[in-house]
Amino acid sequence: xxxxxxPPSASGTPGQRVTISCSGSSSNIGSNYVYWYQQLPGTxxxxxxxxxxxxxxxVPDRFSGSKSGTSASxxxxxxxSEDEADYYCxxxxxxxxxxxxxxxxxxxLTVL
Amino acid sequence: xxxxxxxxxxxxxPSQTLSLTCTVSGGSISSGSYYWSWIRQxxxxxxxxxxxxxxxxxxxxxxxxxxxxxxSVDTSKNQFSLKLSSVTAADTAVYYCxxxxxxxxxxxxxxxxxxxxxxxxxxxxxx
Lengths: 112, 127
Prior knowledge:
By secondary structure, chain A is mostly beta strands. Chain A contains no helices and 9 strands. In chain A, strands 1, 3, 4, 7, 8 and 9 form a 6-stranded mixed β-sheet that branches. In chain A, strands 2-6-5 form a 3-stranded antiparallel β-sheet, with no helix packed on it.
């Protein structure tokens, strides 16, 4: 069971806007930045969003991130077939055992 | 362009120590300020952060793995390494190494995420 909660699947048609949610708690999302990673089939994860809503160089502005309280969302507008991938949210967790990076269980995005 | 490449045995026996190396190319592991991390992913499952080491040598580990994990840096070889002791079948996974910058665009607080990843290496724990 993952510390951060994501829906296991999401889908949309080309051109649509889809959102993927990520729910956490006060010790992680509530007090730290949220990151999003995209993992295309058979490849390593790629950083998509950092510090809640910042895009690394080269990431299209079709991808956007937001955070409110203990939840975060990734939005993808103008959906394209190449966006079909697994998406993971992540955040630092200030646990009593020591800080650690925690991930969501991942959301598999299907482009219909 | 910095690239990372994992290497190590693909098969480890139960109770033994898993040892992996991540070789950094296209840049020096000791130049700049970076965190060097290990993450793993069991087949068909999600990502699990194992731990990281900073350029200075300080480390942070996943509390659930802390008693079995050691991450170290060898600047002479431009590599960093992972050792995971007393492995079981539950440690079977694809292991990734990754880099996280301490500074980006003039902001220096280590909050910029893992921006460069290796391609991953599969490790199976089996007798």
